[in-house]
Amino acid sequence: MTGFIDWDTLPLGTKPDDLIARELNVARRKVCAERNKRGIKPFIGRVISQEGLGLRSIYEAMYDAVLHEQGIEHSHEVPVPNTNFKSDFKINDTFIEIAGMLNFNKYKEKYLKKKAAYKQLGINVVWLEIEQLEILFINCNLLIKFRENTGCKLCGYNSIKLVKDICHKCYCKTWIKATDHEIGICGFCQKQFPQYSRDSKFCSRQCYWNSMKLDLPSIDWLESEISATSMSEVAAELGVNYYTLHKKLYRNKKRKRE
Fold first, then answer.
1. pTM for the complete prediction?
2. The architecture CATH gives domain 47-147
3. Tens digit of pLDDT at every position of the chain (258 positions)
4. Residue 200, exposed/middle/buried by CB under 10 A (0-12, 13-18, 19+)?
5. Which parts of the chain fold into alpha helices (H)?
């Protein structure tokens, strides 16, 4: 679509700016600017498959629509044998991966790592780049579906930042089987807890925050000792970092002034 665009007649805010931009063949920032100019809030719904399953991107929804229109049976988020990965789709014995956002270093690193693992294991996989996907979708008559519900389907937590209709905390847990959980000892309260990651040292955020609180003598004692020696010597005697001690005293002085 080119030429004059009557922005007041377009469904701004009812679907992602990126999708509207693709339909109009204009830059996404142009759609965003026109929407903001009219005081319309951005779309915050969740993209879903034709069956109503939560998806992670517009690209997955585009490919899902193509497969449905062509009557091709497929599965979503299928675990890949002998790896910790899940493929975007699977058709018969072939895994399908959508290679999007390769201009982001973090995503590109994951993409290259995944591709190398598939090659090493001899896994039958097809990699679809965004340009290929757009060519497939351009003649598709099925529309991309959205859901405006923002509640996590597992815990009910209400957030616009859901992944596959699941909040970040629940989504992370779904990547690890219950039988794979290791039991750790909390570094603060000493209680046992299931470790969802080998790096987990605390059973909760509260225990992590509590662990950051230093068990130091009173402020009066600290100031008395520092006036007699130095902050560096007092820090060394207490076994704490110089800057940590300095920050504690600074915050105390700031509270007194307030």
1. 0.53
2. 3-Layer(aba) Sandwich (3.40)
3. 456 888 988 888 877 787 788 778 888 888 888 999 999 887 766 778 898 887 777 888 899 999 999 999 999 989 998 888 889 999 999 999 998 777 767 678 888 989 999 999 999 999 998 888 888 988 889 888 877 666 777 887 776 566 666 777 777 766 554 445 577 787 777 788 777 665 677 778 777 767 666 666 777 777 777 766 677 777 776 666 777 777 777 777 777 666
4. middle
5. 17-24, 28-37, 58-69, 105-121, 130-137, 168-173, 205-211, 219-228, 231-238, 242-257
Computed over its alpha carbons, how large is the radius of gyration of the chain?
A: 26
Domain locations along the chain: 7-43, 47-147, 178-211, 219-257
Dihedrals phi, psi of 237, to nearest 5 degrees: -65, -35
Nearest to 85 by CA among 74, 93, 96: 96
Tokens 């570094």, residue?
A: 187
Whether the CB-CB separation of 73 and 91 falls below 8 Å is answered with: yes
d(CA 189, CA 4): 65
